[in-house]
Every structure is written in C-alpha cells, then in structure tokens.
Amino acid sequence: MNWRLALLLSALLCGATGQVSASDQWRTAHLRGECETALTEARAAADAGSAEALLQLSDWHFFGTCLDKDDIASARFALQAAQGGMARAQTVVGQLYASGLGVERDDAEARRWYLLAADAGDAEAMLLLARHIEADTTNPVAADVALAWANRSAEAGYAPAFVHLAQLYSGGGAQTDYAKAAQWLDRSIESGYKDNGVWVAYSWACLNLGRYDDVLHAVDQVPKEAAEYKAAQINRAHALLLNGQIGNAREVYAANLTMRGEDEFRRILRDDFAELRRSGRAHPAMARIEKLFAIGAAPQ
Q1: 254-257 long-range contacts, Cβ below 8 Å, gap at least 24?
Q2: Which tens digits make up the pLDDT trace of 9-39?
Q3: Residue 104 to residues 58, 83, 89, 97, Cα–Cα distance (Å)
Q4: How far is Cα 143 from Cα 135, in angstroms, rounded to an integer?
Q5: Would the pTM count as exceeding 0.85?
Q6: Cα–chain-centroid distance for residue 82?
Q7: Could you read off the pLDDT of 201-213 as tens digits, one per residue?
Q8: Do the beta carbons of residue 262 and residue 270 sit within 8 Å?
Q9: Taking Cα atoms as reference points, which of 92, 42, 95, 102 lies closest to residue 66?
C-alpha cells in the first residue's frame, strides 16, 4: 500500500469514533464535492500556523485531490508542518527524503526526521527508523538498536510492527525464535491486521513449533487467486507430511510443483526442509519426499 495512503487511512480510522474534526472533513472534501470550502478553511488555518492544515495541503497536492498533483508543493507544505513540531508530519517528511518524492533523496535527513517523530511518540516513525537502522551493515549494534525501536513501535500498538517483529524472529538467523514470531502474529491477527502474507507467516511459524492444526487453519485463509497461495500450499504440504499424512502431502507437493515450476519448487523445498530440520521438526518421510522429487544437496 502507498505509504501516504496508509497514513491517511490510519488518520481516518483514528477519527472513526468521537467528534469529527475540521481536518477529518478536509480529508474527505473531494468525495462530497466540497473542495472549495475546505480549501478556504485549510488555507486560512495554514496562514495562522496550523500544522494540521499545512499537512492537509500537502496531502491534497500529493494525491491530486482538491489541488493539482504536485510532489514539490506537497513536500514544501509537509516540511512546514514538520518544522512546526507535528510528529505525523515529521514522519511524512522522513518518508519523502527516503523516497526522493518532491525532494532530493537523502537517507541522513530521512533518519533525522524519523528520529524526531519517534522521540515524539509516533509509532509508525519508530518502525520506519528501525527499518532504516537495519539497513546499516557497517554498524555492529544496528540489529539490536533496530529491534529495540521495533519493540517500542509494537508496544505502542502499531500493527505493522507486530508483523515486522515476527519477520525478524522467523529469519533463520541468530534472532530466530518461532514462539515469539507466532506471538507477534497472534497480536497482528487479533488487531485485524491479517492480510495473506500474515497468514502465510503465521503458518510458517506454527510449522516450526509443531502446531499443525494451526498451520492448516492459517493456510485456509489464503484464497486461490492470491499471490501468496503457492507459499500457503507448500506449508500445507509440510504440515500434512510432518503430521504423518504422507499420501496427502505428496499430492499437495505435486500440485505446488506445477504452480512453481521444477527449479523453484526444488529450491523452496530444499530450503524449507533445512530450516524445519534445524528447528527440530525432522521427519523420516522428508527423505522420501526429497527422493521422489529429486531434491539434492544445495549447490555450493
């Protein structure tokens, strides 16, 4: 999802209960054909120093609603709002510098604005900062600092942080902890943040924990037309195999091969079996499946 659209939807959800503010009315003015009134109000508020109004002018320019599409003007208004101390605007400005939309791309500036917003309590900025820090391969403590920021974002209730933490704990590296991954994905699902990728990630965590009924429930949530269907179905096959239903597993593996092609299927199966064995889920039938589908050792 476009990050500015995600931010807009978040703001709309936050305003779904309680009194409707002027900014809520501005955001949806184009849907009601009330742009002229909204523009007059927002411009007057912006002239009076309202950061909310400045950010709204930025949004209108970004989306091309009520104002012409103009990334440079959008960035200018967002920067004014951010300089006024508005944490949400600071998050937006960080994303602008990270992407180079309306401004020259500048990772150092992106990080600076993310840090300002995160320090002010913006949960989305905390997660964006975590991801930014993770990318710094020269810093020996980057992974630990990034994990700390991701945890703060999750503690603030930001559902994408739940998924991010689950990914960190499912990565197969030093931080791998499938119990923690499943716990964070449980939180994500309970919060309503449960797209197809979440269900696939949850099924993989449960596979590595031996929770095969939970795997089957999770993969059942992924529709056949979804891009994630192939991943869901190979996890179904793994669950059937590890639960002793070898004949059923063979059928699902064969169907997965036809969806992926032989080379991709064999690579995925080899990697999945290696991780399942590493996490203590080895099963004698794995060798039979490897022989049946001609899965050799990983190339050196």
Answers
A1: 256/230, 257/293
A2: 344 333 333 344 567 899 999 999 999 999 9
A3: 17, 18, 18, 7
A4: 9
A5: no
A6: 24
A7: 999 999 999 999 9
A8: no
A9: 42
